[in-house]
Amino acid sequence: MRIARFSEGSDPRFGFVQGDPGSEYIAVLSGDPLFQPARPTGERIDLDSDGLRLLAPIIPRSKVIGVGRNYPAHVAEFDSEIPAQPLLFLKPNTAVIGPDDPIQLPSWSSDVHYEAELAVVISRMTKNVTEESALDHVLGYMVANDVTARDIQNSDDQWTRAKGFDSSCPLGPWITTGIDTEDLGVTARVNGEVRQDARTSDMVFDVPFLISYISEVFTLLPGDVILTGTPAGVGPLNPGDVVECEVEGLGTLRNPVVSDIYEAE
Prior knowledge:
Layout: E1 2-7, E2 13-18, E3 25-30, E4 39-46, E5 53-54, E6 64-68, H1 72-77, E7 87-91, E8 96-97, E9 103-105, E10 112-114, E11 116-122, H2 131-134, E12 138-145, E13 148-149, H3 150-155, H4 160-164, E14 169-176, E15 185-190, E16 193-199, H5 207-217, E17 225-227, E18 235-236, E19 242-247, E20 251-259
């Protein structure tokens, strides 16, 4: 099942994405399926309809938790060390954007990178959960781009500024439920050129372990998002670029890149 959040120029609505590729449509739902029973309204909207805009599938009401250095090859490309335990950081929900929304390069960074990732959406309150039952607390999965100001990450003692700025957390294109994420392809393309290409089976810490570990640190709430780390091949983004992040079976998240719209003239 694929859960989309969308707009036609009005308030956001939710629906199930159904149909074969090329003829997909949204079966509209009443209310928010994360917090209310999902009831189809009977309305159907073609996915390629004029005026239809896919939004970030969820705006976390609580937090986005990132995991750093979770792919050995990515650790190696920066001459770092694999952490003994997951390396955690937070992104505010103001960092979240959706499909086709622009990534705004901040004026105070000269080296902003893409990072394609598998994202996990939590379905219910989760605290001190075991690895064995961790997946029972998952609503589904989506594609993420953990956009990072690399120069700021290297200069600051902590990663908040480097990873938490506005538009640094593209999510989408929808939430997919009931999928096995143990061995999925993770890729990133910039202007059509493949830059990242790995598999989730390469991760140091897998999804059940991450959920269990993180739930010991934070109480996870419905709608919280976990970014599970990025593979090797990260690199810079420039105004005019188009970055596409893809996770096998979850779809493609596309975003154009622009200069900071708030930069003073």
